[in-house]
């Protein structure tokens, strides 16, 4: 009996040890598959690795496992010349799914040419992927995608370690350091790309990687950027929305004939000039603006937005975005989308100050959620019972001390190799295109870095790549940027004085 008990005890200890080992290594496991995609008419073979890599604390303890997917072009013998792109989405609390299976990766979800869901849901080849010129890793921060903290960590510890502007940048920089070391990519030209909240993330990472990990980048790409911590003030914040309103009104043919008859990009410069030179000063005067001046400004805003002078005056010349999305097509019974104004919604009542829901985000979740779950299991062969968090619990998010625009400026000043590309959609009301231009103006007041900054606009919204025409163009702009920002062999990173 004692012998049987001893055998059972030994087996139990072995089983417990095995289970404990599995629990530990579950934060550090990968699976690899292979594939091929035709890009610009050329077959590109690649290896796809997906799984988790740990996050460690200062004591060397695993505190989280970040899920990632890494695409490497096959047949590359010299990786020191092969660019590496590290890709993040935003939220905060959003997975990397959006750019992963709709923008730069070798596979994209099945949608129509304007970005709307179609059935059956699925995945198809991306003929515009940048995998021909760069390897790409898509990273999910804690609580997004399949990424999770250890189960022993409480909410307070999670907030302290992960959920804030500075916390996010610090632990992700360490994770990138480990990834680059494991993949032996220290010699490769390196690029960060971030969308939406991913833009302050990668802007902050550019300096953190450089100053704390001595990892120097070649380029940063900001897709639909936020304000990056740049102070605007109430007048600038209110006035800067006008060009976006004008673009949306033009799309729905709500402008006067002389404006409507122009092409979008021919019409917008007039609105931008008015915004900077006249609207900001007018709004800054507040209640001390004369009645006649107020009437003149209201008339001009009405001309550029398709809204009535009456509602503009009722809002003291400051049109809230929510009201604009509700008001523009109110008489037709529709609302317009927040992140992409081309999407229409239907509210319970036509009355009200803002839409009942975000028409564009509902549409995107409709198409992306089944596609990423299908893709992970059936194409990448990643097996897990975890829920894929399109948006995960990361709130409250500590937004204090957001210096990410200044971080990026410092990184560029310290690193002559580093270049910046900004991409924005004209119909994005969440992170509007004109404010992305304003970021560039304010980021470097000296103007000494502007030759290394570039801006591109697209006739779509927050996710410009969902529109097939912009998918091709925006990827090509990234491809050109990578080639331009990868220096010629032997070219030194230095500033030179003019003689």
UniProtKB/TrEMBL annotation:
GO biological process, any: proteolysis
Keyword field: Carboxypeptidase, Glycoprotein, Hydrolase, Protease, Signal
Origin superkingdom: Bacteria
Pfam families for the chain: Peptidase_S10
N-terminal signal peptide: 1-20
GO molecular function (one): serine-type carboxypeptidase activity
PANTHER family in the record: RETINOID-INDUCIBLE SERINE CARBOXYPEPTIDASE, SERINE PROTEASE FAMILY S10 SERINE CARBOXYPEPTIDASE
Protein name according to UniProt: Carboxypeptidase
Lineage of the species this protein comes from: Bacteria, Pseudomonadati, Bacteroidota, Flavobacteriia, Flavobacteriales
């Amino acid at each position: 009996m004692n012998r049987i008990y001893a055998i059972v005890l030994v087996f139990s200890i072995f089983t417990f040890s095995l289970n404990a080992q599995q629990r530990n290594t579950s934060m550090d496991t990968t699976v690899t598959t292979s594939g091929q995609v035709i890009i610009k008419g050329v077959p590109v073979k690649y290896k796809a690795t997906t799984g988790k890599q740990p996050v460690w604390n200062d004591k060397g303890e695993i505190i989280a496992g970040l899920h990632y997917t890494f695409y490497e072009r096959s047949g590359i013998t010299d990786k020191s010349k092969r660019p590496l792109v590290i890709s993040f989405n935003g939220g905060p609390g959003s997975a990397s799914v959006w750019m992963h299976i709709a923008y730069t990766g070798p596979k994209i979800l099945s949608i129509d040419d304007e970005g709307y869901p179609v059935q059956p849901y699925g995945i198809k080849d991306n003929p515009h992927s940048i995998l021909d010129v760069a390897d790409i890793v898509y990273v999910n921060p804690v609580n997004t995608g399949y990424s999770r903290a250890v189960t022993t960590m409480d909410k307070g510890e999670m907030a302290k370690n992960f959920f804030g502007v500075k916390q996010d940048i610090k632990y992700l920089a360490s994770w990138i350091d480990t990834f680059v070391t494991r993949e032996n990519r220290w010699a490769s030209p390196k690029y960060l790309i971030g969308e939406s909240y991913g833009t302050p993330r990668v802007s902050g990472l550019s300096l953190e990687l450089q100053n704390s990990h001595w990892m120097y980048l070649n380029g940063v790409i900001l897709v639909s950027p936020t304000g990056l911590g740049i102070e605007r003030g109430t007048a600038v914040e209110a006035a800067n929305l006008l060009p976006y309103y004008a673009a949306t009104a033009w799309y729905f043919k709500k402008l006067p004939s002389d404006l409507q008859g122009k092409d979008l990009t021919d019409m917008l410069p007039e609105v931008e000039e008015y915004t900077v030179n006249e609207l900001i000063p007018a709004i800054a005067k507040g209640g001390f603006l004369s009645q006649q001046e107020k009437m003149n400004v209201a008339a001009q805003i009405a001309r550029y937005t398709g809204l009535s002078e009456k509602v503009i005056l009722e809002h003291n010349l400051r049109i809230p975005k929510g009201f604009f999305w509700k008001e523009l097509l109110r008489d037709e019974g529709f609302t317009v989308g927040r992140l992409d104004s081309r999407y229409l919604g239907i509210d319970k009542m036509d009355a009200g100050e803002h839409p009942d829901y975000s028409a564009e985000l509902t549409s995107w979740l409709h198409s992306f959620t089944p596609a990423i779950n299908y893709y992970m299991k059936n194409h990448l062969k990643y097996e897990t019972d975890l829920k894929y968090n399109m948006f995960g619990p990361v709130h409250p998010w500590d937004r204090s001390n957001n210096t990410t625009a200044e971080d990026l400026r410092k990184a560029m000043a310290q690193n002559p190799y580093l270049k910046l590309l900004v991409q924005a959609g004209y119909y994005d009301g969440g992170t509007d295109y004109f404010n992305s231009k304003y970021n560039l103006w304010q980021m470097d007041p000296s103007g000494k870095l502007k030759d290394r900054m570039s801006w591109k606009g697209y006739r779509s919204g927050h996710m410009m790549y969902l529109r097939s025409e912009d998918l091709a163009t925006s990827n090509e702009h990234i491809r050109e940027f990578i080639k331009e920002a990868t220096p010629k062999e032997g070219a030194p990173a230095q500033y030179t004085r003019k003689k």
